[in-house]
Amino acid sequence: MELENKVIWITGASSGIGRALAVQLAQENTVIASGRSWEKLLKLKEEVPEIVIRQADVTQPSELAYTCRFIEQLFGKLDMLIANAGHCEYMDVRSFDSSIAWRMMETNYMGFVYSLEASLPLLRRAESPHVVAMSSSSVFAGLPRAEAYSASKAAISQFMESLAADLKPEGFTLSVIHPGFVDTELTRHNDFPMPLIMTPDKAAKRIIQGITREQFSIDFPRALTWLLRCLKSTPFFVRHRITGSLSRNAQHEL
Ligand SMILES: NC(=O)c1ccc[n+]([C@@H]2O[C@H](COP(=O)([O-])OP(=O)(O)OC[C@H]3O[C@@H](n4cnc5c(N)ncnc54)[C@H](OP(=O)(O)O)[C@@H]3O)[C@@H](O)[C@H]2O)c1
User: Fold this and answer.
1) 32, 117, 145, 159 - which has most CB atoms within 10 Å?
2) What is the structure's pLDDT at 254?
3) Mutational pocket test of ligand 1: of 39, 107, 186, the residue with most ligand atoms within 8 Å of the beta carbon
4) pTM of the model
5) Peptide bond connecting 221 to the previous residue in cis, omega within 30 degrees of 0
6) If you average pLDDT over residues 21-34, what whole number do you get?
7) Domain ranges of the chain
């Protein structure tokens, strides 16, 4: 697939992976970059003036609908949605807090669903529409403290499986991204080792390569995602022994 002269909307493009994607894709395409932080979006625009910026919170369907009306007025169609906006909070089962699970579902999962709802009519006007959703390699294994985050990302991956069945007959291409660790604001507060961590620029390059190849599941870095997939395919008692040994509860009494 040629990735040029497309109209591409990227949510969560004010920082990290989304920002790196916006900068790289804007070289050959029209990019609409959205996020909540107007200050960060303005900085992006200073760096790459061709990028169109819009302030939109993915938990607010009206703001997403407004963004799509704006795209329609300016460009008449949308070739690609990259639903990237997301956030990560870890749980501590010793002081269980369901509001974390709610926030993860609201921003990560519903944010993706709302973005899709707003953009589908415009995507249907494109010759070869492409829906790209940001999941995580955490869906391949039940890692400690990732209950809420992984569940919100697993919901996205599963949603995309069914969406592929329903939208492919209409000529859509679908991709779901499962990255390992990327050095962004999201991972900066992580207080555990992050093997094979990569820069947002490198992650964006790998994502663009996967999109161009029309891969459904864009998994990287290979060594990590392969290891996690292998872990998931082991019997319960084996993998629960391994993941349990990584849990803080292995060192603390409940
Ligand atoms: N970094 C990693 O290791 C890693 C690994 C796997 C998956 N991911 C996923 O990759 C995506 C990007 O994360 P990142 O690592 O690049 O982190 P980041 O630098 O913190 O970027 C997150 C982006 O999402 C936006 N965002 C958050 N909540 C939003 C909301 N309610 N409405 C609109 N935009 C919102 C943020 O913009 P504003 O604050 O301006 O709204 C920001 O642009 C996320 O979905 C994350 O789960 C990251």
Assistant:
1) 32
2) 40
3) 186
4) 0.96
5) yes
6) 98
7) 7-250
